[in-house]
C-alpha cells in the first residue's frame, strides 16, 4: 500500500529528527528538488547530504499543523536547534508515485546564519 502525502511528510520529519538517513533516502525520488533559504539542491543524495549537515544542529522538530490535499502537503513546525531560538518553519512537499519529488521550505534563517559566523 502506498503512503499518503501526509504520511510521507510525517515519516520524513521523524527520520530526519531521528537521523535515520537510510530511511529518509528511501522516501525521496532520485530527482527530488529542494529549495529553502539555506540551499537549492537537485537530487536525492545531495538532499540527504544537506539534511545531514543541518542535523548537526537539529535538536527537535515540533509540528504545529499539517495540511494535505491529494499529492501536496504543508507542515508547519518549530525547528529547534542547538544554535538559535526555535524557528517557525513551513515545509511544502509534492508526492508522486509514493515518493517525495519536491520540497520547498520557508523560514527566517538569520539566527542559524549568525551562529555559523
UniProtKB/TrEMBL annotation:
Highest taxon, organism lineage: Bacteria
SUPFAM superfamilies in the cross-refs: NTF2-like (SSF54427)
Domain called SnoaL-like: residue spans: 10-102
Gene3D superfamilies cross-referenced by the UniProt entry: 3.10.450.50
InterPro entries: NTF2-like_dom_sf, SnoaL-like
A Pfam family the protein falls into: SnoaL_2
The name this protein goes by in its record: SnoaL-like domain-containing protein
Organism name: Microbacterium gilvum
